[in-house]
Amino acid sequence: MRFEYKYVVPMERLDALRQDVMPYTTLDVYTMRRKDHQYTVRSIYFDTSRLAAYREKLEGIKNRKKLRIRSYDAAAEGARAFLEIKTKIERRGMKCRSALSATDLPAFLHTRNPEEYILVGPNRTLALDNARRFLFHYIRSAMRPVVLVTYEREAFQGQFDPNLRITFDKHLRFQGVPSLNDLYNENGLTHLAASSFIMEIKFGGGFAPWLRAIVKKHGLTRVSVSKYGSCVTASGVAGKLGCADLVGLACGRTEVAA
After folding, report:
1. DSSP 3-state assignment of 108?
2. What is the gyration radius of the CA atoms in the chain, in angstroms?
3. Residue 165, Cβ neighbours under 10 Å: how many?
4. Is the pLDDT of residue 25 over 50?
5. What is the mean pLDDT of residues 15-42?
6. Which long-range contacts (CB under 8 A, 24 or more apart) does 181-184 make?
7. C-alpha torsion sign, points 53, 173, 12, 35
8. Mapped to the 3 state alphabet, what secondary structure does 14-82 carry?
9. Helix 209-217 / helix 14-21 crossing angle, nearest 10 deg
10. Cα torsion 205, 172, 55, 95: sign
11. Are 144 and 47 within 8 A, CB to CB?
12. What tens digit of pLDDT does each residue of 140-157 get?
């Protein structure tokens, strides 16, 4: 498990912030492969009919989880998707995932047969167990696709600390109540907060002094912001499902500055 700090940053600070972190980091392998040094993250989030995960976030529940299907860039032959459970315990987070062919997603959720569809890789037991965990929550809570969240990501990793990861997530956009076939959709998406981006810092031990200095230099304040929660609120899905009493709550609580 790692700590996860988030900051909402004006877009005009992107270049300066990137220059400040680069002496201490390197581009991660996926960012490095792209000519423009960014890649597209695509996630379909699942929730219950009463939006339990959304409610827990807005109510500030410390221990919670989210289910999503994630893939990257554009649809292509052999593209993979990942079943993910993201768990938050206090300020620490962890993620378990398993992979399958993106084209097999509907069949997998219909048959619920990990052995047939999951790409097991070097650790077959872990891959199948993670898929079964996903199915357990998906079936038990009768989850359904609630929102598609898409954005571009620049990702950096620490030069001296392998547990440090810094990401800049830009051009956030969404679609309410998607189908599985919408995972790679770019038509008609609604853009959200185009004038800012989200910087996430994930780390396992102490918060490095050089990072603290950069945060102070740019006047950044740590917030509890959720891309999922923000997009659900903006989409109006919550009101349609009878959760309008929660829509007015802030999706980005301010926390103590790092």
Report:
1. helix
2. 18
3. 19
4. yes
5. 94
6. 181/106, 182/44, 182/148, 183/42, 183/44, 183/69, 183/71, 183/75, 183/81, 183/102, 183/105, 183/148, 184/42, 184/71, 184/74, 184/75, 184/102
7. positive
8. HHHHHHHHHHHEEECHHHHHCCCCCEEEEEEEEECCCCHHHHHHHCCCCEEEEEEEEEECCCCCCCEEE
9. 160
10. negative
11. yes
12. 999 999 999 999 999 999
Distance CA 165, CA 128 (A): 27
Q: Could you tell me the pLDDT band of residue 92, with boundaries at 50, 70 and 90?
A: confident
Q: What is the mean pLDDT of the chain?
A: 91
Q: Is the pLDDT of residue 15 over 80?
A: yes
For the domain covering 2-254, report its CATH number: 3.20.100.30
Residue 248 confidence (pLDDT):
35
Q: How does residue 62 score in pLDDT terms, banded at 50, 70 and 90?
A: confident
Give the start-to-end residue ranges of the domains of the chain: 2-254
pLDDT for 255 equals: 55
The tokens describing 94, both together, are: 């962890």
The predicted-structure confidence for 63-87, as pLDDT tens digits, reads as follows 999 999 999 999 999 999 999 999 9
* Tokens matching residue 219: 């006047």
Q: Give SS3 for 12.
A: helix
Q: Which two tokens stand for residue 19?
A: 């220059």
Q: How far apart are CA 116 and CA 175, in angstroms?
A: 30
Rounded CA gap, 188 and 174, in Å? 9
